[in-house]
Every structure is written in structure tokens, then in C-alpha cells.
Design a protein that fits this description.
outer membrane lipoprotein receptor (LolB), chain A; globular; Outer-membrane lipoprotein carrier protein; periplasm
């Protein structure tokens, strides 16, 4: 079973109580960031006894609304947001699924990364205590239609280095980022997708 998630970056200041004003840093980072790219490692775990799924790849984001999330191992899979629609391409299944960007971004982790700066309209944000040497921010989706109960972002040295996503099915997805570059020069082709020939296309 292949699990698809999306997501990236911020800033950090530690208070005397051992907490950080991550919410303010997150908003400030997003307001000054037009894009970010890097690599990720992802671990998905379910209920006790369920197998753990591990994957990795690279990503690029150009705000607002454009992103590329590419899984390399153990299966190739590509997610591209072109500003209007989001494409999910599975080379093994020879299938590409397309949906409206607004439907794909609303109350999803991608909204934190590729959406606009109006986070308070979509999430309830709060600072959490420092953990594992990181400053943590929790984002609770306001919409009941969201598939996630909560999203937590771990920050260090002015960058997001981890995310934890808890969904309604008892699964926890942890994403660890590396090699992050803020506001890089990015080709427009990164955020375009044309289905290859002989691929089934499903529009939602």
C-alpha cells in the first residue's frame, strides 16, 4: 500500500520557559519565502502490529499553489501542483489522477507549505513545548472534512526539519527534511505535468 503525503520550512526562538514562539516565526517565514526545496524521509506507522512504511525522495515548492513532491524509494510516485490542479502520477500503475487545487489544498499539510499566508483561516495554531532539541508548532485543521486530526512541525536553526501528521485512521506520518534551500531559483517545468502516452487519466 502506498501512502501519499506532502509538505516544508520556518524559524525558531526559545523563551525562558523552554517554549518557542514558533507560530510567529512560522508566519514570518511564510511571508518572506517564495519557495523552498530539499529532500525528505518519511515513516508511516499505524496501530500496533501494523507494518511500518518507509519512503524517501525530494520536493520543491513555489508559493502560492505550486509544488512537486517526488517519491524515489521504495516506489516511484509523483505529486505536482501547477497552481490550478494537483496531479498524482503512479508510473507502476500507469495512472494519473487530477483534482482541483483548492480541493487538494484545503485543510491539508500542503496548505501550510504551498498555500497563502492566511493560516488562521484554515488552522488553529499553537506553540508546543520543545522536544528532541526542536521547537514545535501544532496546526489543528478547522474543517471537519480534513483527513488529519493534527499536524506538528519541528523547527531548528530557522528551518523546519520534521513534521508529524496524525490522521483519523490512527496512522502517524513522520517526515524528516534535509538539504533545505530557501528561495532557490527554480525552473517552471518543475511545476508542470503532462501525462505520458498510454496512461489512464482520472479527473476528480
Amino acid at each position: 500500500m502506498k501512502i501519499v503525503r506532502w509538505l516544508p520550512a520556518l524559524a525558531l526562538t526559545v523563551s525562558a520557559l523552554g517554549h518557542a514562539d514558533g507560530v510567529s516565526d512560522l508566519k514570518r517565514f511564510l511571508s518572506s519565502t517564495s519557495g523552498v526545496q530539499g529532500q525528505f524521509n518519511q515513516v508511516v506507522s499505524g496501530k500496533p502490529g501494523a507494518p511500518t512504511q518507509i519512503s524517501n525522495g525530494d520536493f520543491a515548492i513555489q508559493r502560492p499553489g505550486k509544488f512537486r513532491w517526488s517519491y524515489r524509494k521504495p516506489y516511484e510516485q509523483l505529486i505536482v501542483g501547477d497552481g490550478k490542479r494537483v496531479w498524482l502520477y503512479d508510473p507502476e500503475l500507469r495512472q494519473a489522477t487530477s483534482k482541483q487545487l483548492s480541493a487538494a489544498l484545503e485543510s491539508s499539510p500542503a496548505a501550510l507549505l504551498a498555500g497563502d499566508n492566511a493560516l488562521d483561516k484554515t488552522y488553529t495554531l499553537r506553540n508546543l513545548a520543545n522536544r528532541d532539541g526542536l521547537s514545535w508548532v501544532e496546526a489543528i485543521p478547522r474543517s471537519k472534512e480534513s483527513t488529519f486530526d493534527s499536524i506538528r512541525l519541528g523547527l531548528k536553526n530557522a528551518q523546519v526539519v520534521a513534521m508529524e501528521l496524525q490522521d483519523h485512521f490512527g496512522q502517524t506520518t513522520k517526515v524528516f527534511f534535509s538539504g533545505l534551500t530557501q528561495n532557490p531559483k527554480q525552473s517552471a517545468d518543475l511545476f508542470r505535468f503532462t501525462p505520458p502516452k498510454d496512461v489512464d487519466v482520472v479527473e476528480e
